[in-house]
Amino acid sequence: MRHIEVFHAIKQAGSISKAAVLLGVSQPAASKVLQHAESSLGFKLFERVKGRLLPTAEAELLYVEVAKLNTGLDQLRKLSANLRRFPQGRLHVGCLPSLGLSIMPQTIHEFRKTCPSVVCEVETNHIDALIAGLRSRQLDLAVSMFPDEHPDIRTQVIGEVDLVYLGPHDGGEVDLAEIQDHEFVGLSRSDGVGGMIAHEREKLGCSYAPAIEVQTYYLACAFAAAGCGAAVVDRLTAQSMLRPGLFLRKLKQRLIVHMVVLTHEANVIRGFYTDFGTILRKSFANTISTAVSG
Length: 294
Description:
Layout: H1 2-13, H2 16-23, H3 27-41, E1 46-49, E2 52-55, H4 57-85, E3 90-95, H5 97-101, H6 104-114, E4 119-124, H7 127-135, E5 141-145, E6 153-167, E7 185-187, H8 192-203, E8 212-214, H9 217-225, E9 231-234, H10 235-240, E10 247-250, E11 256-264, H11 271-293
Parallel strand pairs: 3-4, 3-5, 7-8
Antiparallel strand pairs: 1-2, 5-11, 6-9, 6-10, 6-11
């Protein structure tokens, strides 16, 4: 493991002296480890060219796998540090940005009442980054909407929410076909909700070519609030982003997305994970009930 650390540091820093500083060891000690590694391997890892160590072709090939191992070591160190810092437990939750503004604050507030000794860390990100966080074990849980199937990821549905219109025009139900492309603040087709809206409009004989295309539900609402047009997003996000001059209206076409909790299938389900899921479900139900009645 020491060979891997020194090799990785030298490859990153470009010199033994800088690598030694990164590792907190003396330069002679780092040189000795490098020499021992090259002796054990039977080939050179670096050549000295004009005072700088350059990796050999063999080193470049090894580095691809060494970088993966080094990432794993960093994660192991972080896990060990967290276990030392938070012996009673730590919950690292990821969620979509829109959920971070709608139901997550209340959920964490209630969870802390139930599990006051558990330290909570919450971050927001896109679904691809949340899945990556679960796979690297950086995240314990992720909360998302409109789930696709992901290998090695468990999915627990906790409820459903409808898509709504958020825009400058008041009135009753809105037909998706009524929203013109030039006033549509739309989501990318690669997004689950964006793809659903595009498919539904095409079924109605309309195009889906939004004048403005964004990557998050929150951003779609922010653009609508700035007067750029109308957005179609989940009711939770629309309710949290409702501003003077904007109107929240039901869609004639009932489009539903599911709220889900995601975990890695290899994760040990700790007791407070279940507590969090129960509280999230209640918070979601209460928020939806309030939003619909409002």
